[in-house]
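Q: Could you fold this chain for me?
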Amino acid sequence: MEQREFFIPLASDAALRVRYAKDRGRILRFTVQLEAYIEDAWTPITRYDNAHQFVHRDDLKPDGTQIKTPPMAFANQEDALNFASQDLKTNHRFYIERYQQWIKK
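A: Sure. Below is the predicted structure, expressed as structure tokens.
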């Protein structure tokens, strides 16, 4: 089984952390997490994963709570991993700004 972890820089203050386990060319487990440099620390903002045997998104709040999406359907885990990466690349500013608004509340 192949396992990898790497970062994709998005801006000077944001990056994606991508982790996956692959066997025989197929993704078995994955996590794609948006992290931002806020208040002198790298902070997890939003994450997609299939840790509970289904694909979902967790929006992480500053107080430690999470907003979990319902299970998401994909043809396979590769499609889910690609969707997660593309969503976070495209919408990272939205997710970071929303997190910063939660800090102010």
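A (continued): The chain is about 25% helix and 50% strand.
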